[in-house]
Amino acid sequence: MNVCYRVDLSQAEREELTALLSGGKHAVRRLKRAQILLAADAGVSDEAIATSVGVGGSMVYRTKRRFVEGNLELALSEEERPDAARKLIGKEEALLIATACARPPEGRKRWTLNLLAGEMVKLTGHDDLSRETVRRRLAENELKPWQNHMWCIPQVDGAYVARMEDVLDLYAEEPDPKRSVVCFDESPTQLIGEVREPIPAEPGQPERYDCEYRRNGTANLFVFLDAHRSWRHVKVTDHRTARDFARCMLDLVDVHSPEADLTRVVMDNLSTHTAGAWYETFLAPEAHRGLQRLEFHYTPKHASWLNMVEIEIGVLRGQCLDRRIGEREPLVSEVDAWQRQRNASGARIKWMFTTERARNKMARAYPDTAKES
Question: Which terminus of the chain is more exposed, N or C, with fewer CB under 10 A?
């Protein structure tokens, strides 16, 4: 017959348990035991505790017994299991971590728990190891070898820093209509048409569209964004050749910024983004005239995040293009409507990263002037 244990917590113990439940990273079973003790101290029955906390009655009984016969820490911690010796400890655990961080076996994309368990059997004296044992040791070291993240790792040298600070200084300037700063980039988009007409939404039923679709080619979006005022312009083209780029820049000079003496354009160093594209497209006098009113500022290689227009392209895709548009004409119409509404709303990109912040945050990445080149 089970003994009925009564839990009487002191004020200090109640505060400790409350603090444990209020925040921090703790094991789930430890948190459940804290809930059990607080509920038992309040006079809640064992059956009600088990139901509310979501545990079995035996766990409620053991937690109360370990508190009464021991202390608070004993009640919150796991009971010793003498028949289950811990595997993969010390050097073996270090060997598991090193193996998980190494290349997987030939013919396999990545390590799995089963692969690691089999490899550790080969490398250690264990007769067998379960995948759960491997999972627990990896979790304790916050290691998940089956996951990977794509990342662009640029080479930060003097040229990278020079271009970065040049762009950041442009963003930090006071607005000047005579010397505007315009960010530019291009973005391809697919023309995806419907095979069957979507079924409109109705109460209790979302819009439904067929999984089958029709590919109608691609279009290109040339996107301009003024860094200092609420203005953006999107031009839809069939291609993105050097001639398309030059014509787009001519529109910027003559149509969109006729009042500016000089327009500084921030863009990446794509092979078509050159002054030579003008001379390949226009007669020399026209090319020379347009280039006199433009000044190109290139972002560093692998640093498109420095181009403010990349944020605007994300907004364009999220608000307008995240759907099926199958023809060029509807695409032009929808994009024009989007840019008119956004320009009228006064929306701007609030750029917070400055040259000073770059020097503080990326200090270790800046070239070391003490080293000989």
Answer: N
Same domain, 348 and 263: yes
Q: Are 183 and 125 within one domain?
A: no
What secondary structure does DSSP assign to 154-179, as a single string?
Answer: ----HHHHHHHHHHHHHHHSPP-TTE
Provide long-range contacts, Cβ within 8 A and 24+ apart, for 140-144. Answer: 141/93, 141/97, 143/97, 143/100, 143/101
Q: Could you report the per-residue pLDDT of 137-168, keeping only the tens digit for each?
A: 999 999 988 888 877 767 888 889 999 999 99
Q: Any idea how long the chain is?
A: 373
- The DSSP code for 186 is E
Does residue 243 belong to any structural domain of this protein? Answer: yes
Say yes or no: 60 and 109 in one domain.
Answer: no
Q: How far apart are CA 275 and CA 281, in angstroms?
A: 10
Instruction: Based on the fold, state whether residues 223 and 172 are members of the same structural domain.
Output: yes
CA distance linking residue 210 with residue 233, whole number of Å: 33
Binned at pLDDT 50, 70 and 90, residue 81 comes out as low
Instruction: Report residue 39 as tokens.
Output: 């509920």
Task: Give the global pTM.
Answer: 0.68
**Enclosing domain of residue 223:** 158-203+211-358
CA angle 141, 145, 151 (to 5 degrees): 105
For residue 260, what are its two tokens? Answer: 């500016």
Upper half-sphere CA count for residue 322 (Cβ side, 13 Å): 7
* CATH number, position 265: 3.30.420.10
Sorted by sequence, the CB contacts under 8 Å of residue 253 that are 6+ apart come out as 263, 290, 293, 294
Distance (Å, whole) CA 42 – CA 319: 53
Question: Does residue 199 form part of some domain?
Answer: yes
The packing angle between helices 131-140 and 91-101, to 10°, is: 90
- Is there a single domain that holds both residue 125 and residue 234? no
Rounded Cα gap, residues 53 and 31, in angstroms: 10
pLDDT for res 373: 54
| Residues 37 and 99 both lie in one domain | no
Q: How many domains does the chain have?
A: 3
Assess whether pLDDT exceeds 80 at residue 356. yes
Spatial strand order in the sheet of 213-226: 232-237, 213-226, 179-194, 262-267, 294-298
